[in-house]
Amino acid sequence: AEGVRLYSQRTWEQVMGAGGKAALEGVIEAAVAFFTAQCDADNHAVREAACACIAEMGAKLDRAVLSPHVPALLQALLACFRDESWPVRDAACVACGRFVGNFPDECAASLDAELYALFFEHLADNIWSVREDAAVALGLVVRAYGEPAFAVVYARLQQDVGAAREQVADSQRFKDLQKTTKFGVSGVLTLSGAEAADLKHTDQQMFSCGSLAPKMRKKRAGGCMDHGFARPKEPWERSDGCVYLVRELASGHPAEMAAVLPALAEVARLRHFLHHNHLLETLWKQLPAIARGVGKRAFKQHLELFFDPLFYSLRSDHQLAAAAAADCLIALSAFVGPGIFRGRLEQHNPALCDHFDRHPLITSASRAGPGSGPGSGAGGAPARFAGGASGLVR
Q1: What pTM was computed for the model?
Q2: Are residues 88 and 47 in contact, defined by beta-carbon separation less than 8 angstroms?
Q3: Degrees (nearest 5) of the Cα angle 111, 117, 122?
Q4: Is 186 in a helix, a strand, or coil?
Q5: Cα–Cα distance between 139 and 151 in angstroms, integer?
Q6: How many whole angstroms separate alpha carbon 52 and alpha carbon 24?
Q7: CA 20 to 30 Å from 19, out of 72, 114, 157, 283?
Q8: In this structure, are residues 119 and 93 in contact, taking their beta carbons and an 8 Å threshold?
Q9: What is the pLDDT of residues 323-369, one digit of tens each?
Q10: What are residue 181's DSSP bridge partners?
């Protein structure tokens, strides 16, 4: 629970003051043994917390002190990477990314053997935060290992960025049912076998009583596909993960990521599947960060490609996508320059200028000032990668 975590952090700070880091390094063997043991605890919340603590150790402790223990810690994280509980896998993904970034030599053997497969698998996870964290971790891999790693990751990006084109429209369940009544009373129709199963409400996520954390046991049969999700991954989720990956690679490889922008724009024009608004929401939240990464000159060459999908979302009934589109339009206008942005928009479709000037989501955000839009989503790596995961090391 968040309250317990914050209380523990404050208690640690009050007791240890500024000496927490040195104290932990002094008992490193016991600390490593304890955290690796907790990665195998029966309670999923304990396993998640153990991964978060290991991530912080990897980020803050002295490299010389922690280096001999990296293999044991990495093996514990790899086991949690296959956990049935997605928050545990998410925490393990964050921790593995940090370990690769801080200990590239010690993690090199595991990268080709297991980590690439796990990162790519979670880049298309059913949970959006797991997809984002996998993208951030792959960005750390590229920064740690350079061009050889980029070649591997870029090949996967090119393969999956357009996967949403393969997404089938949701089939209508129970399409043969008719709304019939007799004397005002609905009839009863009994179905059996495959016709009785509504896949949208079967084998879905379970949750613990009194908690929004999933209620799941450990399940680690081995292999990157053994983390226990019943619902198959959807092609659009692969494209969604690639949006985060483009964001992570844009600043280091701007030319290559600029070349991916037309593929992102093509995906943004897809409307044939139920969850296309979720994909659009992700894209609009991350596009300003992608634009900053590839640079103003390169991005302006592709700006018009995104106008129609952006205004489609702005005018849609999906409020989260609409808010993200409004934020994105405001951010892109500021990035390329309001005059240039308006000129390009007017040249593309003069009618859209009126929508841009009058839409309440944009006008209200403009009056409130920068950074205060309806979604206030500037994009960028999640904060859990930037700072301490648990706050216990000072």
Answers
A1: 0.79
A2: yes
A3: 115
A4: strand
A5: 12
A6: 15
A7: 72
A8: yes
A9: 999 999 999 999 999 999 999 999 999 998 888 888 888 777 655 55
A10: 186
Measure Cα distances from 111 to 8, 106, 347 in Å: 34, 10, 48
Measured distance CA(121)–CA(105) in Å, rounded: 23
Which amino acid, one-letter code, is at 180?
T
Give the DSSP letter string of 204-239.
---B-TTSSSB-------SSTT-S---SPPPHHHHH
pLDDT digits (tens, 9 = 90+) for 155-171: 999 999 999 999 888 63
Please write the tens of the pLDDT for every residue from 19-57: 888 999 899 999 999 999 999 998 888 899 899 889 888
- Give the C-alpha separation, 97 to 56, whole Å: 11
**Pairwise CA distance, residues 90 & 211, whole Å:** 18
The average pLDDT across 372-385 equals: 52
Distance CA 165, CA 388 (A): 38
**Residue 294 contacts residue 261 (beta carbons within 8 Å):** yes
How many Cα atoms sit within 13 Å of 60 on the Cβ side?
A: 24
For 186, residues 6+ apart whose C-beta sits below 8 A from its C-beta are: 180
Q: Which run of H or of E encompasses 356?
A: helix 350-358
Between CA 303 and CA 298 the distance in angstroms is: 9
Residue 340 CA from chain centroid, whole number: 32
Q: Tokens 């964290």, residue?
A: 133
